[in-house]
Structures are given as structure tokens and as C-alpha cells.
Specification:
Layout: E1 3-9, E2 12-17, E3 20-24, E4 27-30, E5 34-37, E6 43-51, H1 53-68, H2 81-100, E7 111-119, E8 125-129, E9 135-137, E10 144-148, H3 154-160, H4 167-184, E11 192-198, E12 207-210, H5 215-233
Antiparallel strand pairs: 1-2, 1-10, 2-11, 3-4, 5-6, 6-7, 7-8, 8-9, 11-12
GO cellular component, one term: proteasome core complex
GO biological process, one term: proteolysis involved in protein catabolic process
Organism: Methylomonas methanica (strain DSM 25384 / MC09)
Length: 251
């Protein structure tokens, strides 16, 4: 499986992904799920992917081929990120239909994408493109999107992230969210990729990759666990004087 997060706050974007594609008993596979698309200088576009690897690779190949061959519709001709998300949805649907009609039983070609970046003078942003081709974007109230195993890392995002959260704090929150997911689900694992994009910079020069056992990740995990334990120990206990007999209902 996988877990990817796209955070869009006032200062810019934070994109985070794990790299595990298979976690069987004796088969652990690693594949990067963060993909930078080489476009014109007036835009920066990054994709995060979850789902069928063959579909993902076919979609990426098509996006890059359309740019190289200067197709009428490609990521360099888009004026808005929403157009790019719609285009990505069409390409993904086409690749899924081709794989679905290949005659392979038990083959599920669905793939989900996070598309994030900035085009020209338009605001930066992030979009979640579903396997069906439709999409949603972030909002002031929910400045993040997730794909893959999202339930384990969602609570910390809901509690910490706000639209005006500084980028560095958003990155820390994303790493804690990722670590929480790794701890609870063996199908998600390092290396962990994180990319920080500063609004209007059109530079992707703040990228980090954390391997298994990385000193910084271990320190982050240890301190987070200690602080959670301290917070739990400080919680008020249930007042035993409020205890009552369990109600027995007559049928």
C-alpha cells in the first residue's frame, strides 16, 4: 500500500510520501511515489501516487510524452492547476480502461494521485484526483489531502494544521503523521520523501529523503512518544463517585 500527504498553506506546499509498494512476509519492495514533472520555468508540478504501479507508470509516461511531443493538451499548456487535475484524471481513466480490458482476471488498475504545485501568477495548491477521474482540492478549513492508508495519520493533521501554519511546522506535522501510519501499518514504510515548496519561488530545492533508522526520524519518534505519554499521564481520571449500576432492561 502507501501513504501520501499534500499540505497547502499560505506559505506554500509540503508533500510527503512513503516508498513501500509490497510488504509480504518475505517480499518488501520499495518504489518512490513522488514524481516531479519537468515543465516550463513558469510552473512547478509534482505528483504523488497510490494504487496500481503499472497504471501510475503509464500515466507518468503519457504526461511526459505529451510535453516532449508538444501535444495540443499537456502540462505546459495549462493556465490553472484545476485544468491540470482534470487532464490528469482523463489520462488516468484512459490507462485504467486499457489495463482493465487486457483480459487479466483479478487485476485492479485503479490509481489515485495528488497533484500539487503552482502555475504562473495563479495561487499554489493541491488536488486529489480519484480513480474515476474527478478531483477535489484543499480549503482554508482542511489544508491537506491524503491518499493511501490515511486513517492512522489523520488525527494529528486535523489537530495541528491550519491555513496559516508555517511551512516548517507543516513539515513536522506531516512527518509525525507519516510515522504514526508506519507504526500502525506494515504496508507503509521508509524511505520517506518530503518536499517543501515556498510560494512563488518556482524552486524545488528543499527535498529530504529519510531512510530506515534515520537518526532524525528516530529522534522525532522518541520525543513524540515521550510527549504523548506525558500528556496521557496528566489527563484527569474518571471520577469513581459518578459510577452507577449498569442498567438492566426488561424484555
Amino acid at each position: 500500500m502507501t501513504y501520501c500527504i499534500a499540505v497547502s498553506v499560505k506559505e506554500g506546499l509540503v508533500l510527503t510520501s512513503d516508498s513501500r509498494t509490497n510488504a509480504g512476509i518475505d517480499n518488501v519492495s520499495v518504489h518512490c511515489k513522488m514524481h516531479v514533472i519537468q515543465t516550463c520555468e513558469d510552473r512547478k508540478i509534482v505528483l504523488l501516487s497510490a494504487g496500481n504501479l503499472a497504471t501510475t507508470q503509464a500515466v507518468l509516461d503519457q504526461l511526459r510524452r505529451d510535453i516532449k511531443e508538444r501535444a495540443e493538451t499537456n502540462l505546459n499548456t495549462m493556465q490553472y492547476l484545476s485544468e491540470a487535475a482534470e487532464y490528469l484524471g482523463h489520462v488516468s481513466l484512459d490507462k485504467q480502461h486499457r489495463h482493465a480490458n487486457s483480459g487479466q482476471n483479478g487485476f485492479f488498475p485503479a490509481a489515485t494521485f495528488l497533484l500539487a504545485g503552482q502555475i504562473g501568477a495563479e495561487p499554489h495548491g493541491a488536488y486529489l484526483v480519484y480513480p474515476e477521474g474527478n478531483y477535489i482540492t484543499t480549503s482554508d478549513h482542511t489544508p491537506y489531502l491524503q491518499i493511501g492508508e490515511n486513517k492512522y495519520g489523520k488525527p494529528v493533521l486535523d489537530r495541528i494544521l491550519k491555513i496559516d501554519t508555517p511551512l516548517e511546522e507543516a513539515a513536522l506535522c506531516s512527518l509525525i503523521s507519516m510515522d504514526s501510519t508506519i507504526r500502525s501499518n506494515v504496508s507503509v514504510g521508509p524511505p520517506v520523501d518530503i518536499l517543501i515548496y515556498h510560494r512563488d519561488s518556482f524552486e524545488l530545492n528543499e527535498y529530504y529523503r529519510f531512510q530506515e533508522g534515520d537518526d532524525y526520524l528516530m529522534q522525532l519518534r522518541r520525543i513524540w512518544q515521550e510527549k504523548l505519554s506525558d500528556a496521557f499521564a496528566a489527563l484527569p481520571r474518571i471520577d469513581k463517585q459518578e459510577a452507577k449500576d449498569f442498567p438492566v432492561l426488561d424484555h
